[in-house]
Design brief:
Layout (H helix, E strand, L loop, with lengths): L15 E10 L2 E11 L4 E5 L6 H9 L6 E6 L2 E5 L2 E2 L8 E4 L11 H6 L7 H11 L15 H14 L4 E5 L7 H18 L3 E5 L2 H7 L2 E6 L6 E6 L1 H6 L4 H7 L3 E4 L1 E3 L2 E4 L2 E4 L9 E4 L4 E17 L2 E8 L2 E7 L7 E6 L4 E3 L1
Parallel strand pairs: 3-9, 3-10, 7-8, 8-9
Antiparallel strand pairs: 1-2, 1-4, 4-5, 5-6, 10-11, 12-16, 13-14, 14-15, 16-21, 17-18, 17-20, 18-19
Helix pairs in contact: 3-4, 4-5
């Protein structure tokens, strides 16, 4: 076999690579050693609380802010490195979808999508994007005559028009009624996946992150700014958090003190089996679905909340109230609690 030195790789470049990104405003650290990638056709959610640096990170990728340290690559091209801009904002291949959609009210839907495009193929490109986003019947309408969900799709079509290396979705459902978020989120994901586009979803909503993304990055506060505390598949990040901080950011959690001995842990509520993948830990992570109610025991049921398709039951224990998810309304006031599966522990 002959090996050609310098032969071209057939592997497509990674749409977005962020390496050890850091930034501070004066003496206040905002981002600290943030590193991650978004692969071709992948939807990655960056989940974190308000003020942790999510918007600063998005602005650094888009070129709206120059980070003090680290490197950003778009489709294999370095656009910024240690405070030096290599590619200006207008030449970066990013598509932006903001909270308020930022549509031009005086232009039609088709003209909004076509804005910034040139060449004889513009009309065909716009038509294909309107078909993809199911907006063809509204091509001649003004954005203000559309629903919020339709406006969101216009903004997405416009962001896709220039065939960006990566889509940056900045809290795209922040201004949407909660009842519509699921439908709009699934619609947005379908469009992104069908277009083969890489996308980074910036959000503080854990349901959006866990429900829509292929992979989740948890951006948590650190001593020098926001840092990636954990990354992985949504179910893994939720079920096997690396810390109490990650557990709290990814879903409702109660923490019980535990003394581990081999594959078991002694808690104030009983001795339970520990997940074999769990290394160390001094506290048991209890999610509503972690435990089951068993009739007859020392703990008293308090409030019962409807949570279709089941119920959330508040159980008063020696460690305080614990919420337990059940499929049926409990018929007994006295219960004990037992885990459905081996439990997970964190420090």
């Amino acid at each position: 076999m002959v090996h050609l030195e310098g032969a071209l790789s057939l592997t497509p470049p990674t749409p977005l690579s962020v390496h050890a990104l850091g930034h501070a405003f004066g003496q206040v650290g905002v981002l600290d050693q943030v590193s991650f990638e978004v692969g071709p056709g992948e939807v990655v959610a960056l989940l974190g609380p308000s003020g942790v640096g999510k918007t600063t990170l998005l602005r650094a990728i888009a070129g709206l802010l120059t980070p003090g340290a680290g490197r950003v690559e778009l489709a294999g091209v370095s656009v910024v490195n240690d405070g030096l801009e290599h590619v200006p904002t207008e030449r970066r291949r990013v598509g932006l979808v903001f909270q308020d959609y930022a549509l031009f009210p005086h232009l039609s839907v088709a003209d909004n999508v076509a804005f910034g495009l040139q060449g004889p193929s513009t009309a065909d490109r716009v038509a294909s994007l309107l078909a993809l986003t199911e907006l063809s019947p509204f091509a001649g309408r003004r954005p203000q005559t559309l629903s919020g969900g339709q406006q969101q799709r216009v903004a997405l079509a416009r962001a896709l028009a220039t065939e960006p290396a990566v889509l940056l979705l900045d809290e795209p459902f922040a201004n949407v009624d909660p009842a519509l978020r699921l439908a709009l989120g699934e619609g947005l994901r379908r469009i992104v996946v069908e277009s083969g586009q890489a996308a980074l979803l910036i959000t503080h909503d854990r349901d959006e992150a866990l429900g829509l993304a292929d992979r989740v990055l948890v951006l948590a506060p650190g001593s020098k700014g926001g840092t990636i505390a954990q990354s992985g598949l949504p179910d893994a990040v939720y079920s096997h958090p690396v810390s109490a901080t990650v557990a709290g950011l990814t879903g409702p959690a109660t923490f019980l003190p535990g003394l581990r001995r081999d594959d078991e842990v002694e808690t104030p509520l009983g001795t339970w089996a520990v997940d074999g993948r769990c290394i160390g830990g001094t506290r048991v992570v209890v999610r509503p679905e972690t435990l089951q109610l068993i009739v007859g025991g020392p703990w008293t049921i308090g409030r019962v909340r409807s949570a279709p398709p089941g119920f959330l039951v508040q159980v008063h224990t020696a460690e305080g109230p614990i919420w337990v998810a059940t499929s049926r309304r409990p018929t007994s006031k006295k219960v004990r609690l037992s885990p459905l599966d081996p439990v997970w522990m964190v420090d």
